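Colleagues,

Please find the record for the two-part complex below.
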Amino acid sequence: MNVAKLSAVLLLALVMALSACQDSSITILNAAGATFPYPIYSKWFDEYHKLHPNVQINYQSIGSGGGIRQLLDRTVDFGASDGPMSDEQLAAAQIQILHFPTVLGADVPSYNLPGVTAELKFTPQALAGIFLGKITKWNDPAIAEANPGVSLPAQDIVVIHRSDGSGTTYIWTDYLSKVSDEWRTRVGRGTSVNWPVGLGGKGNEGVAGLVKQTPYSLGYVELVYALQNNMTYAAVRNSAGVFLKATLGSVSAAAASVAASMPQDFRVSITNPGGATAYPIASFTWLLVPTRIEDAAKRAAVKDFLTWMMTAGQEYCEPLAYAKLPQEIVARETQAIALIQ
Amino acid sequence: MATAHTTVDSGDFSRLRGWLRRLRSGDEIARLVTLLFASSVILLTLLLVYRLWDESVQARQTFGWTFLFSRVWDPVAGQFGALPFVYGTLVTSLLGLMVAVPLGLGAAIFLAELAPRRISDGLTFLIDLLAAVPSVIYGLLGIFIVVPLMRTVIQPALQQTLGFLPFFQGPAYGIGFLTGGVVLAVMIVPFIISVSREVLLAVPVEQREAALALGATRWEATWKAVVPYARAGLLGSVFLALARALGETMAVTMVVGNNPNISASLFAPGYSIAAVLANEFSEATGDLYLSALMELALVLFLVTFILNGLARILIVLTARRGSGMAQV
């Protein structure tokens, strides 16, 4: 009996001592959202924590939809999304939310054409026709005229798209909606759409796997993913008439070309911009931050992180194959940080 | 301790004293605890159904019964319908059963009746391991092995020999209902084998001996005496496998093509309820979209419930005198 009582008292004392040791000066921020920028975000949060050991940011990549939901439910301090919140969502939120672009992503058309080694070029009309199911053969004139000298086979095109909701799909359908009226009215833009044709793969890896496995297939994947996995992808003609393969430079150029006309809240689509060096299928990914943050320590941490992210943090982008924010955008975002109170 | 109670104790009081005695001796506690566990399972299921019903209210009010018959799934326009998913779920599961049941029952009969004991035990151990393999692994096996095999060998062969049937027409992607069904079959065969083997081994040896004594060959004894006796259990194993197939998510979504389309051709891509829930749930923004997905989950629950109910009825109907079920 005595030994049991003694050990119970000791255990209690240990627990109390441990809880008293807890450092209450650590600011913990919780965030959740998009999966696309997860590698760069986790790198940033880690590096920021090394510079500021008293700030810890936890990020759960549960998807853009989940990030928006968690933010609206106030279970996280800020969210992340590949697609901007819609007007209805912003109106329905009880709080005012700011969008901060962080990095740029792009979609590339990846294909599997046995026997064709030349790099293909696609016009916007060809891509729209293929994904609408109206262009069904590889040797269709719409594709052949952009690829003179390449002998395209007379095979059916197997279209591959995403089966899960994703910012990648949002970028692709946003672009197709801009270049094709029929796509805009028939299908529209969204993270998940009613695809007229095609097989669905789950995640970038699912689409990539299906494209690699299925001869005569065409699908879209994130540029980051295509670069890291050495996938074959095609050049796309931009609005200035130049056929461009996606590179980090051409993606940043797409953002720079809309910097002047960007709206105050940064909710802009940068697909199909003007500019000869701009890749047409690119997009921002945003951090969603409420304008009012009650806790002073959290507010200071968020503002400081955002400032760091836009300046020193951008150095970590290129090694991870993300495109940096152009200077013009950074300047405007720095002004917007002041709105967080 | 049994003293004669006089009429001073009323009936209720003595029952209460009896209950208190059982409580102190642990019997009543054991009964209450096990009752709690049993009812918690039922309560969890009811809670699940209640939550699904509650969360799907917006979709149910917007679409009504047309949800079950609509073929459109358009998140952008806000139009949702369950028919392609129900069709895909039923087609892949039934196809899986059609391939797995002969294979599984045949293997179980071999392992229980015809194989030497050591081989039977060793193979059973391996088959039980197969049942424990995660479904993602089956999905990967499907993508890397079954799909190319389907696309290059099996589907063209089927098209050449049976191409006049509407089931085997259309381009052979390798991905589609047929591949989904085959992968599901590979997943549910271990369940059928292990449960059926147990059921066959539980048949009393007198049944076999009686058949053999009447002059039956070994196969006749097995097929005409042992298997009909175990029929209820064998059907039970098949429906257990069906329940697994209906809910299977990852393996199916990797090979079925994820295209909400209703087509007679087994080569065409399709979709199943579990697959669309896995794919679209985490990114679903918008209350109607989420609500429609919840309603799909409710539909899957109902489909599983109905099929299992039919299974029970079938088992009861086919039980006959002189079979294992008759003792129930």
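The longest strand of chain A covers residues 97-112.

Comments are welcome before we finalize the supplementary table.
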